[in-house]
Amino acid sequence: MNFSWDDLRLFLEVARLGGLSAAAQVTGLSAATLGRRITALERQMGERLFVRSQTGYQLTEAGTNLLERAEEVATAMRGLMRWKDSVAGLPVVRISAGPWTSAFIASRIDSVWTVADRFVVEFVTATEKVDIGRRHADIGIRNQRPTEQWLAGRQVGSVAYGIYAGRNLINGVKAGYFVGTAGKSMHSERWLEAHHGDRIALRGNDAMAVRELVAAGAGLSVFPCFVGDSDPRLVRVAPPIAELATDQWLVSHHEGRHEPAVKAVAERLATLLKSHAPLFGGALPLALP
Predict the structure, then answer these.
(1) Closest Cα partner for 127 from 247, 254, 24?
(2) 170 pLDDT exceeds 80?
(3) Is it the case that residue 88 has pLDDT exceeding 60?
(4) Are 289 and 228 in contact (CB under 8 A)?
(5) Mind listing the pLDDT tens digit for each residue in 48-57?
(6) Topology of 161-244 in CATH?
(7) Is the CATH number 2.60.120.560 carried by domain 5-76?
(8) pTM of this structure
């Protein structure tokens, strides 16, 4: 049986992220396309790899077995790509972060990378923790101290969360409705479901879609303060939610962190995040609608 590396790569993303919507953000393919590719792979194997449900994709026994072997292939492929990059003369520094943090850094890329640098930067955006130990990324921005002995971490700040509404108080906002997400991968999504689940009238398939719905007046929702306070279409309607506050950690491999390119990017990221500590911590004054 001949496996396509591209098919295995897509299978890995769906398996790691637990569903098509999250994997679609990482791969750039639509959820429908991903679903067809996974189904085709299952037919090729003659085995079901996932149990589908409204809450996501859960691996079957066959899927778990394939995941172990696909991870080995992925490690080999990353080694091959690093060799290729080295031959090309420019090392690649991979930054792993959630969608919001990735977008924040990308919008300020001049603080992290310039054309004069002798390395390139690649974003590995995911809502789940990316495995730095296996070099899926060189630097990760996480909400907790790393526990793995092969990882080094330093705290660079904290992140506050708040409830936001659109400035145009129409539709769901007037009725006190909330906008949720289809998944429950982030702790803020789980909090919203637990505290206001009975008032969720609309859902988006990703965080960006939820923000657009809230900005349009469809209802209230929870966002990191550095997201909500930076968007002129949104207004925070209550103080930050204390139980959702998290630390912000910069994580890298014990050995890899000493590589000149990785060290340079890590220092710049730390400076960038610390310089925006009030924004991340929700220190801007509350402005009720």
Answers:
(1) 24
(2) no
(3) no
(4) no
(5) 999 998 888 9
(6) D-Maltodextrin-Binding Protein; domain 2 (3.40.190)
(7) no
(8) 0.66
